[in-house]
Amino acid sequence: MALESLQRDTQDFPIPFHLLDKEFTMPELHAVFETIHDKKLDRSRFQKKMFGYGVFERLHVLNKTVPYRKPYVYHFKKQILNG
Q1: How buried is residue 29: exposed, middle or buried, by Cβ count under 10 Å (0-12/13-18/19+)?
Q2: DSSP string, 27-49
Q3: Which residue has the higher pLDDT, 13 or 80?
Q4: What's the pLDDT tens digit per position in 3-19?
Q5: Rounded-to-integer distance, Cα 33 and Cα 16, Å
Q6: Rounded distance, CA 25 to CA 42, Å?
Q7: Whole-structure pTM value
Q8: Cβ–Cβ under 8 Å, residues 81 and 30
Q9: 74: β partners
Q10: Is there a contact between 34 and 45 (Cβ–Cβ < 8 Å)?
Q11: What angle, 0 to 180 degrees and rounded to 10, lies between the N-to-C axes of helices 26-37 and 43-52?
Q12: What average pLDDT score do residues 20-39 get?
């Protein structure tokens, strides 16, 4: 029941911020959503939907720990976290 509730909730709002570090990459957020919904999600459509919420702030930092293309680091805007 908890998983079904989480799946329903993430349809309307990107709430899994409590499952990520304060700073995260879009591939990390994408992986969380794929895990929650137990299916592959189109990356570009996913990103457009997430950016459409207007709750992320891109930091001027690249994740340099990956050997491939370096993704930007994001965090949730403070007013979202405070309620």
Answers
A1: buried
A2: HHHHHHHHHHHTS---HHHHHHH
A3: 13
A4: 777 777 666 666 666 77
A5: 8
A6: 16
A7: 0.73
A8: no
A9: 24, 58
A10: no
A11: 100
A12: 88
